[in-house]
Amino acid sequence: MDNSKFVRAVSSAAADYPDVTFSKKGCVYTCVNPYSYHMVRNNDSLYSEMDGLYVDGILMAKFISFLWGCKIPRLSFDMSGMAVDLFARLNGNDETIYFVGSKQEALEESIAHIRKAYPNMHIAGYRNGYFLLPEHREEEIRHIVEINPDFVIVGMGSPIQERFALDLKKAGFKGIVFTCGGFLHQTADGINYYPRWVNKYNLRAFYRLYKEKGLFKRLYNVLFEFPVLFTFDSIQTKLRKRSK
Description:
The two termini are 17 Å apart. The chain is 53% helix and 12% strand. Helix 4 packs parallel to helix 12. Strands 2-1-6-5-3-4 form a six-stranded parallel beta sheet, with helices on both faces. The chain is globular. The protein is an alpha/beta fold. It has two domains: 1-21 and 34-74 and 213-244, no CATH class; 77-191, Response regulator (Rossmann fold, 3-Layer(aba) Sandwich). It is built from twelve helices and six strands.
């Protein structure tokens, strides 16, 4: 993997945040964390189509800083990152937002929490992220294009959510799309999934391990697999460039 290209992408996206990010129409953004980094490695053509990549994870930000000398902020679409800024913006203007993702029950609970916290935000609609047939997926894409909200938030897990977001853009959607991973599932428990002390000490990965079952593989990836892969890719990239 060409990590110089990856670092340029996350650096550019960080520099554009929030003014350009929230105003440039027809763009699709996603967040990359240590767990999804291997998906970026294996789906380079898919992630290269994104208009912006954001770093979700302090460990990834520190490795970029150490190996590439770039100071990159953690910007994830949740209530400890971009969601706070976007929702505050929408709570005070006429722009609209649409949500796709999670299971129906969890999604409805999340929407209820969001509406309570941001009563003046205009929610154009929402739908769960499960499609029984390919036709249902296409119908949802056409529906979103037709109602044309200003922002769409997609939470289906990587790389399914990235494919849906890009297909939405290709179908003619003119607004701005963010992928959000597990945000819509997590918000079903309350508007703020992470306690303040967890955010303060950057213990979000460990907190998710405590709260959500089946995430031991994620912790192994964050602490062991990602550092090895990212360091290897970075060294290989630099060696290739020196040999040219």
